[in-house]
Design brief:
alpha/beta; TIM Barrel; Urease, subunit C, domain 1; about 400 residues
Amino acid sequence: MRKLVINNARLLLPSQVMPQAYLVCEDGVITRYGSGSFQPDQEDTVIDAKNNWVSPGFIDIHMHGAGGHDFMDNTVEAYLEIARTVAKYGTTALLPTTLASSNEELFRTFETYKQAKLLKTKGASFLGLHLEGPYFSFEQRGAQDPKYLRNPEPDEYNRILDASEDIVRWSLAPELEGAFAFGRVLKERNILPSVAHTNAIYEEVVEAFQAGFTHVTHLYSAMSSVVRKNAYRYAGAVEAAYLIDDMTVEIIADGVHLPKPLLQFVYKFKGPDKIALCTDAMRGAGMPDGASVLGSLKNGRPVIIEDGVAKLPDRSAFAGSVATADRLVRTMIDVAEVSLPDAVKMMTLTPARIIGVADRKGSIDRGKDADIVIFDDRITVQATIVGGDVVYSR
């Protein structure tokens, strides 16, 4: 039996902080924890946490790439390198995310994911695919390639759904013709429909919520707010996200996509149980500033990385973030002035609940997967553990 013992820890538990504590994992599962220290057997792997924080591993439910690779490069090497890169920053599980593309490229993604998920990553694990697009509003396309944007058609999306059993989430604009029916199909298949890149007004989002769209992709980014039509004002998707109490949201808390007042606003009105932090990172995460590519190297769009974010070359819009999970948590604490437990919850348990894996991930509980991150008071990651194996140590 493989046993990992972590002593001298400050444990971040679901409802409390336990100082001077220990954590024991056996065969990749958390089996016990408590105050004081645990006396290991000679053959056990032992980590001295040195009074650092010991937290559930970070879960990123929206990311495109890191370390110079993008999931839409469609190589197993890209998947494994991204998994290894993000583990350095505390991410233990993630949803590889696509962009609006041709169906040919999308089907290649399905095949590559199927191969990659069977391999030992030596980094973060994969929890399924998040399809972002191509059913988006042209006006709210952001950095998505406009030539691929279209309305959802049953013949097409059923063919896509039948091609992969790994899709767990699909982001689209609910106001498009056929979107509500598509949302119901997704819910029937236990896939999360998410409001994204949308020009919808409040009433359309309410109807979408009733059709199963219970989550909002990167709140504020590529999304309608109050609009005026023929002298009348209409609330948009942003307002709907706040007014629908049971709607969950995700935010790119890199300190660039959303400034301090908006980070504080969403936290105040949605709270840590309804907010997931996501990186929306592209291949530039963990890389130096300069020219890069959003999407695949073959068919992607050129972007510039500067000021801690990716931008279109004309600087007219952001083109994904270059954030890592530790940066999101740090930003929520330092900029939004959120407590450390709440900031961590938005990077762990809340995203786990949103994508339906909270029964096995997202918190330090007996019987859950031994996905653990150890970090100091500055959220500098000291060690990352996935399934009881140390995949990164500083």
